[in-house]
Structure formats: structure tokens, C-alpha cells
Amino acid sequence: MISFNNLLQEYDIKPDWHPVLPSEKDTAFHLKQGKITLFSDFFKFFNFRLPITKFCKSVLDEYQIHISHVHSLGLAKLHHFEFSCLGLGHIPEILVFSAFFVLVWKSPFFTFDRRDIGVSCLRSVPSSSRDKDWKKKFFYIDAGVIPGGMHWREMAPKEKFKDDGPPADGYIENALFKRLSQHPSKCQVIPEGALMLAGTSLLWRDSRFYPSFHRFDNGKCQIAVSKSASDVYFDMLISWVKTGDWSLFDFVDPPCNATLRSADRVVVEQEASVLKIHIENFLLPAFTVDCSAQLVSPPPNSGIPYKDNWEEKRYH
Question: For the stretch 175-210, what's the b/e string if a residue is b when 16 or more beta carbons lie within 10 angstroms of its beta carbon?
């Protein structure tokens, strides 16, 4: 199992954000002053990254919920929806998200379930986390990593939350709604390079390379996708979608007998940095840390006051 310090390094959770483990008496929902609670599962299995995207924050704001209060499977659906939209060449829309998903209260978490509207953008969803102890593996981090504040809803354990969703005539003819309805996909872990290409992650180890993938049909390499200048890239992406060739959406809905393999390419001279192309998609933390800088390992003795392996110590 991944240790806490390894988690910080693997997902570039910066020391400047002051991540700390809880004490034995702490619980996930007694937020510390100036801190928020995050779970390791968010990062490992459900495509959550820091900094968060503006779309993720806009959903939290729309429903007036706190990131610490969202179940990992609900967060997985949110990030899957965002990636799917971008993979199809569309900008994610809250209207369409709220058409497909209903916010429900399942104490002690809020989560997003598929709304019963006859169609879905999901073909399959994990029924549970891969780690049965995920609720115990949380940590605190400075609240400023998600600027703008978040609303904490106080809910009784058996209280019902009402979310009627938008009226059907508001989304039924929406182009994005139609595309996603026609292509339900599998909610799963997505390769980091694909998250980078879509603009939902800034986690990239070596700025000398661009994330790139080859598609193999029945063992034969057919086409490659990689990041280039943003305008050119999106022109290519939209072209692939329109012509029936593959796009980033294939990572969640791969064609039969096709596989996608990483094939990162070297950055050419004067090419824009992969870490800056989609920077406008993200809500940057309210600190002076450059989130588009190349990743570095956290320094030793980074101020974590407790044992750094979740397997060695139980938390509430």
C-alpha cells in the first residue's frame, strides 16, 4: 500500500500546501481551522488532481457542497464526465452534468448517482472503492489549495436531499447531452498522459516530453495522438471526432480489438510547455507556488508529525 509521503510525491502535493496526517483522535469531518480533508482514494483511483479544474469547483459551487463531503465514487463520476466531454471535443456543461446525475445524501457523504432519465453517459461504474479502508486514509491540507471557499451542508444521518434536476426541455436537444447519451462509457482510472492531454491534470514528470499514445488495431499501429500547440491540437482532436478516427474518448470507450499504448515524444524547439497549454482550465491555489513548474520530490522530513504509512496506524 502507498505510504503518505509516497502519495505526496507521486501526485505532486506540494509541501507549501502543508499536508498533514490526522492524529488518532481526529475524524475526517471535524475540519481543522484553515484546512480541508482529502482522501488518498481521490488521487489513486478516481482521477482527482491538485490543482482542481474550474469545472470541478463550479459543480461544487452549483450544489453548494464541500469537496471533503463528497464520496470518492461521486467524485469519480464528476471527473469522468469532465474527461468524457473534453475527449469528445466539447466544453463540460453543468446543465448536462445535472441532467445525467442526481446529488444524493448517503450519510456521512454526498454522492452523485445516475439520474433515472432513460439514458446515461455511463456504461459501468465501480460498485465500491478498491481499498476497503479508504475512509480511514485521509489527510488535512491548506484550504487555500481550492480558492473561493466551499459550503458545508449540515445533514442529519437519515435526512433526504431533494434534487429534482433540470427540466427535460432544457437539455434534451443539447448537442453534448446527445453525444454522451450515444456513447456511454466506462468509469475507470485514466492514464496520466491522457488526463494531461484533455486538460484535467498538471501532473507531468518530465517537461522534455509531451504525452503521446499509439493506437493498435489487431496489433497494428494505426495512428498517434500527442500534444502540440493548443489550437492545432484541438483542430486535430475535433477532426478525429468528426471523421470517425480515434480521440481521447477512446480511453473510456475503446474500440473492439484496439489498445492504446504510451509513446511520449520529445518536445520540439520553441514548442509550448505541456504544463502551460491548459493552465486556464485550472483553479490555481491561493499561494505563490508555480503549479506549472516541473515536478520535484518533496524534501525529506517534510513536517509530517505522524507515521507516514497508513498501514502502520489506524485512523478514524
Answer: ebbebbbeebbebeebebbbbbbbbbbbbbeeeebb
All 3 cell numbers of residue 227?
A: 500534444
Q: Give the chain's end-to-end CA distance (angstroms, integer).
A: 18
Closest CA to 114 of 147, 151, 73, 142: 73
Task: Give dist(CA 114, CA 315) in Å, integer.
Answer: 31
pTM: 0.83
Q: In this predicted model, what pLDDT tens digit does every residue of 172-201 receive, in sequence order? A: 999 999 999 999 999 999 999 889 889 999
Lowest-confidence region among 35-44, 161-170, 236-245: 236-245
Q: CA 133, CA 155: separation in Å to the nearest integer? A: 23
Residue 109's DSSP bridge partners are: 106
303 phi, psi to nearest 5 deg: 90, 10
